[in-house]
Amino acid sequence: MTPTDYRNIKIKRAYDPSDADDGYRVYIDRLWPRGLSHATFHYDSWDKAIAPSSELREWFHEDPDGRWDQFRKKYIEELRANPAFSDMKKEIACKTVVTLLFSSHDREHNNAVVVREALLSEL
Questions:
Q1: If you placed Cys at 103, which of 33, 64, 79, 118 could pair as Cys (CB 3.0 to 4.6 Å)?
Q2: Distance between CA 34 and CA 121 in Å, rounded?
Q3: Are the C-beta atoms of residues 16 and 40 closer than 8 Å to each other?
Q4: C-alpha angle with apex 13: 9 to 16, nearest 5 degrees?
């Protein structure tokens, strides 16, 4: 996969049904999605090492609306300093389509949005 193919990175809630168009599915939360069984939740890789640090996640959840912009910046800094993020980029490099899976209720303000943004910024 060339860097321009990063545009083929989708975002989807872990609770949404899997689809043939999802391609390679990477679950990127630190904790298992509540209520989903290992038998029914389809993912190809669980990369909990790139999830936000516990400190950052807890800080963000105290005021998600007011801290979103700061969370994005701080999490991107964490990702860039995290060797697991580099490993993930190598892992998905040969995939045509990648879907980042998250378990948050908020579809617009979650770690998958930031991971995708970090990948796209490297184009």
A1: 33
A2: 31
A3: no
A4: 110
Residue 2 is predicted with a pLDDT of 47
pLDDT of 55 higher than 90? yes
**Which one-letter DSSP state was computed for residue 42?**
-
CA distances to 3, 18, 75, 111 from 60, rounded to whole Å, are 30, 28, 10, 11
Entry pTM: 0.90
User: What DSSP character marks residue 59?
Assistant: H
Which of 123 and 69 is assigned the larger pLDDT? Answer: 69
Biggest CA pair distance of the chain: 38
Cα-based angle 30, 56, 38 (whole degrees, multiple of 5): 10
- Name the token pair of 72: 């994005």
Q: Residue 51 corresponds to which tokens in the numbers above?
A: 């999830």
- Residues 6 or more apart from 23 whose CB is under 8 A from it? 8, 10, 95, 96, 97, 98, 99
